[in-house]
Design brief:
With 274 residues, the protein is α/β, with parallel strands linked by helices. 42% of the residues lie in helices and 15% in strands. It has a domain of 181 residues: Rossmann fold (3-Layer(aba) Sandwich). It is built from 8 helices and 9 strands. β4, α4 and β5 form a beta-alpha-beta unit. The longest helix is centred in the N-terminal third of the chain and has 29 residues. The chain is globular and about 60 Å long. The structure holds N-(3-methylbut-2-en-1-yl)adenosine 5'-(dihydrogen phosphate) (ZJS). The site of N-(3-methylbut-2-en-1-yl)adenosine 5'-(dihydrogen phosphate) (ZJS) has 20 residues, from β5 and α6. The site of N-(3-methylbut-2-en-1-yl)adenosine 5'-(dihydrogen phosphate) has 20 residues, from β5 and α6. This is Cytokinin riboside 5'-monophosphate phosphoribohydrolase.
Amino acid sequence: MSNPEPPTNDPEADDALYIGPIRVRPQQRLGKTTDRRLLEWVDPRDAERRAERTMRDSWRVLRIQSEFVAGFDAMSEVAEAVTVFGSARMKPDSPEYALGVEVGRALGEAGYAVITGGGPGAMQAANQGAHQAGAQSIGLNIELPFEQTLNPWVDLGMNFRYFFVRKTMFVKYAVGFVCLPGGLGTLDELFEALTLVQTKKVVRFPIVLVGTEFWAGLLDWMRDVLVARGMIAAEDLDLLTVVDEPEDVVAAIHATAVARPSDRPSAADGTMTR
Ligand SMILES: CC(C)=CCNc1ncnc2c1ncn2[C@@H]1O[C@H](COP(=O)(O)O)[C@@H](O)[C@H]1O
């Protein structure tokens, strides 16, 4: 095991804030995040503001493009990776955090790079375990309306302005998802993954939930309400694997992901590659 202490951060970083990839001093901080400005509603009856919005949105496309380019460049050398999600509020002295570290470590020792949202709590735990196992520890952070720095266990980090660009990176460079206990953000990421697999946008993509007790209520509701009322198929539940032990996380990822063929369409598919 390598150094048990987190790598030291730049002492000046405490008062820094990232707007996308750009670091700024707090006094230069913008009131709204980029995502919020993108999604802001403009009254269609206000002709002046509508015209302004059209102009701004057109230029915004270039910024979105540049974020994809920077993300693809940064991630292109990453090894086979697993993305780990989980609560930003998990306390470092909690048993759940310790389990998160073990999950990150087990994945790292099995040869996977670990990608997280780069923030505190469960994300930090998984990055810590991966870093200590000597694996690539990656954090894909997001611009938030309050100060936010990458956790100290991230070796390769990026700050994204746009949620949807960041989410693309979570999926594109991973062979599977692991969800530690978490709140709305974790549920969002879990259900996005489920939808992508259900609709075959990604194939052979294991989704592993850690914590049988934590996830039981949700799984019961999915079975008793969603399946019972025909909103999802019973087989859709098979897309989820629920485990408690770090080695079972690795086994579940291996079982589905190792045999993963290239997703590249072959000529026989008759599919365009664009
Ligand atoms: C203390 C605090 C709330 C910090 C928030 N800082 C965050 N930094 C990076 N990613 C985040 C953050 N909050 C939520 N997320 C995203 O949403 C998930 C966690 O959300 P939640 O805590 O389960 O709902 C993470 O996997 C991450 O991808």
